[in-house]
UniProtKB/TrEMBL annotation:
Belongs to the anhydro-N-acetylmuramic acid kinase family. GO terms for molecular function: kinase activity. Residues 347-371 are annotated as: Disordered. Pathway: Cell wall biogenesis; peptidoglycan recycling; Amino-sugar metabolism; 1,6-anhydro-N-acetylmuramate degradation. It catalyses: 1,6-anhydro-N-acetyl-beta-muramate + ATP + H2O = N-acetyl-D-muramate 6-phosphate + ADP + H(+). This is Anhydro-N-acetylmuramic acid kinase. Residues 347-360 have a biased composition (Low complexity). It comes from Sphingomonas natans. It is an enzyme of class 2 (transferase). ATP binds at G12, T13, S14, L15, D16, G17, V18, D19. Its EC number is 2.7.1.170. Keywords: ATP-binding, Carbohydrate metabolism, Kinase, Nucleotide-binding, Transferase. Signal peptide: none annotated.
Amino acid sequence: MEKLLAIGLMSGTSLDGVDAALIKTDGEGHVRPIEFVGDDYTGDERAAIRAAVQRALEMERPGDDPVIAIAERMLTARHADAVERLLAQAGTAAADVGVVGFHGQTIAHRPDRGWTWQIGDGAGLAERIGITVVDQLRIADVAAGGQGAPLLPVYHRALCAGLPQPVAVLNLGGVGNLTWIGADEALIAFDTGPANGLVNQWVEHQTGAAFDAGGALAAAGSVHHSVLDTMLDNPWFDLPAPKSLDRHDFTDQPAMGLSLEDGAATLTRFTAETVALALRLVPERPARIIVAGGGRHNPVLMRMIGEACALVPEPIEALGWNGDATEAEGFAYMAVRSLRGLPISFPGTTGAPGPMTGGTIHTPTKRTQAA
Ligand SMILES: Nc1ncnc2c1ncn2[C@@H]1O[C@H](COP(=O)(O)OP(=O)(O)OP(=O)(O)O)[C@@H](O)[C@H]1O
Ligand SMILES: CC(=O)N[C@H]1[C@@H]2OC[C@@H](O2)[C@@H](O)[C@@H]1O[C@H](C)C(=O)O
């Protein structure tokens, strides 16, 4: 299959910013990362997204809302800026890029109600950057009865090609998800629970900082086992895959009353234990657990995962990939698969009734001319 230059754009559940990655891929076994940029949101931009999330969580189903429209305009512009910065940094012309995979911002995820909601104006983005955009990658899957998430397992499998199986890839974002790759490339994937989301919320509420940098607060605190046990005593963890979460399905409420440090330690340990619980749901214990996403920068979380799982988690850099870029690169890969009609979700990853492609293609009216 021909290889394309593709850009992937991700704005994740932790609302930290826009990640943009340029890769060359055939959407199958070939992946070559070229460039990556991460642009942080300002406090005002994050507040605008939070306001949109708040509205969306109160709505029965996706619909028009002025607060959400404001956030969507801002997000689309920030994604266009990120594409321009990425192309300038790579020294690549827009005309040479085959497609952009635009995840958008999840503001609410309700597969139980038959919908998931990612905002971002794909058609507007295509016009502004002059490149074909693929967005709404989760919608077809949910409409067919799938969870609509996680979508990146097929990309994780490409990154782990050649490794002894079974092997697992763990994404530690605002929400966590695990991909298990068994013999004959079998895929099982599901969300594990909140990853950094609750600790972020805890720390931000008490200190104003966006997260527990380096796990310093957690390292200075003690785990309160009664709080931890209460949080883990949740039937959701026993549910088999497929399953997925909205960022707000869990709260830090049980930790209220603990000191800042003890709360951070307890919530961090909670995240680690959810990974151990997830490993009970896969058919065979993986030989390695490869970690992508921002949580791998937190040494306390990584240590606690090692203790809870009795398996040392390895940052995805151990395989030669950049774990900060994995999601953005993954959506570039997804866009190429979408253009080619290849499946992006599977019965074992989202509960789709069969392997399914997905995504909406927006072709700009004025395609930038190739150089
Ligand atoms: N140096 C660090 N120390 C501790 N935690 C960190 C560090 N760097 C990043 N993180 C954590 O990683 C988070 C960002 O991770 P990431 O960008 O993978 O999330 P996301 O893509 O927004 O989420 P999702 O995968 O759920 O969509 C931060 O909010 C923070 O909690
Ligand atoms: C609905 C939604 O945006 N889900 C995200 C979120 O962030 C992590 C986890 O929850 C995962 O299910 C998914 O993202 C990754 C990139 C995925 O689809 O593979």
